[in-house]
Amino acid sequence: MRLAPAALASLPANVARPLYDRDAQSVGIVHFGIGAFHRAHQAWYTDAAMNQGGAGWMITGVSLRSPGVARQMNPQDGLYTVAEQSAAGMALRIVGSVRNVLVGSEEPDAVIAAVAAPATRIVSLTVTEKGYCRRADGTLDFDLAHSLSFYYFVTQGLLARRKAGLGGVTLLSCDNLAENGAKLQALMLQYLDRHEPDLVEWFGAHCTCPSTMIDRIVPATTDEDRAAVAEALGDLADQACVVTEPFSQWVIEDRFASPRPHWEGVGAQLVAEVAPYETAKLRMLNGAHSLLAYCGLRAGHEYVHEAIADPALRGLAEQLMRHEAAPTITPAPGQDLAAYADALIARFANPCLNHRLSQIAMDGSQKIPQRWLETLAHNEAQGRACPAIREGLGAWILHLQGHNGTVDDPMADTLSRAAKSAEPMKALFGEGGPMAGVWPVKSVI
Ligand code: CS2
User: Fold this and answer.
1) What is the pTM of this model?
2) Which of 46, 324, 327, 334 counts the highest number of beta carbons within 10 A?
């Protein structure tokens, strides 16, 4: 038996399920990149908002290329389980906010129609750092941003909206980039300027791109996870389940072009200024994650909880968070960076979450600038050294040299070549190097 609407009534009593009539809801959100993170985060908040009575916020998910998630979710009518893992056990909730999943490469017209539908108010994204198709200097790479990118689908959908006399949408980036909203807006404008210059003004007048800080640790789902969830559901298979930690945070700049779900009623923070939260999260959480990933793999560990239990690595993570990243951040009123570091250490130590270091080690070229180089550049300007980040960069170079197996990164070939040269730091970060981008750092070369 497979999870489906008809199975909801017979689930074990401890499994929470949607409290709203799913069939009566229209789709209000089109989401690009419906991976495990979105399912445990934005879709989960949106489901909670509909549980509280909000209406019309079902989600059409889009995978640009891979049919995998569509094959998992569509036969289940979009239903899936969020399993929160902690020492207290597994807390299960069936999320009902996903209506369907479209695959861009298979049904491009349906994706465009979803963006163009009158009820669509929000187009959100978790396409990962590399999905924004940026060059090292931060500008749009037009060769990557082609007809199978979200830029194309969003643009075609917006053209149809304008033609039909409809309003714009809010474009909501939920990826780990600094100032993700402003970046998305700038990149989108570069795309429009090149491909649909007539739409630039309309876009400016009818669409907004708020920034967000998104946080929840969601390891890639494994077959063991699926087996454990199936058992907890009373022998019901769920191909789309996600396993995550109890903690979750979402800080959103309150600058929407159109109505939105009442996310603040279910734990999200709607604020005027996201930057202090986003900066702390990227430089402290993600910065420490990447450090644990490369140094942890070098030391022979497999998971985050193992790396943080290693005293030397824990010391490095503490050094990075408390003494290198925190001094570069101006906290918002009430934001306590020391307490934040304490909480992060405890979250990393969750032994019930098998978060692979190799998952975090992926796509270093896309992550390291906002996680480490920005911190390094700020400290450099103050004449302060960053020994933990230096150590991390050394471990990344080993990784690029093949120490941990195949390098998974869109720039793998160029990076590996530079890392194998006689002076790898110089070859990577020096003038003309692949990492000599928006955050030039001198102290490492
Ligand atoms: C991780 C993040 O994979 C990675 O690079 O650092 O996905 C991290 O788990 C999330 O940002 C936590 O919110």
Assistant:
1) 0.97
2) 46
Residue pointed to by tokens 């900066």 = 279
For residue 335, the CA-to-ligand 1 centroid distance in Å is 21
| Rg of the Cα atoms in the chain | 22
Contact criterion met (CB below 8 Å) for 57 and 49:
yes
Helices within 262-386 (DSSP H only): 275-280, 287-298, 304-308, 311-318, 337-348, 357-361, 364-368, 374-381
Structure tokens at 167: 């309003």
Query: Class of 275-444 per CATH?
Result: mainly alpha
Nearest to 90 by CA among 15, 37, 8, 10: 15
The pick from 217, 245, 356, 371 for probing ligand 1's pocket by mutation, whose C-beta has the most ligand atoms within 8 angstroms, reads: 217
In the reported structure, the alpha carbon of residue 201 is separated from the centroid of ligand 1 by a whole-number distance in angstroms of 35
**Spans of all domains in the chain:** 5-271, 275-444
> What separation in Å is there between the alpha carbon of 7 and the centre of ligand 1?
33
**5-271 in CATH: which number?**
3.40.50.720
286 CA from centroid of ligand 1 (Å): 6
Whole-number Å distance between alpha carbons of 231 and 219: 20
10-residue block means of pLDDT along the chain (445 residues)?
96 98 98 98 98 98 97 98 95 98 98 98 98 94 94 98 98 98 98 98 98 98 97 97 98 97 98 96 98 98 98 98 97 95 98 96 97 97 97 98 98 98 96 91 88
Q: Whose CA is nearest to atom 8 of ligand 1?
A: 217
**Same fold yes or no, 5-271 and 275-444:** no
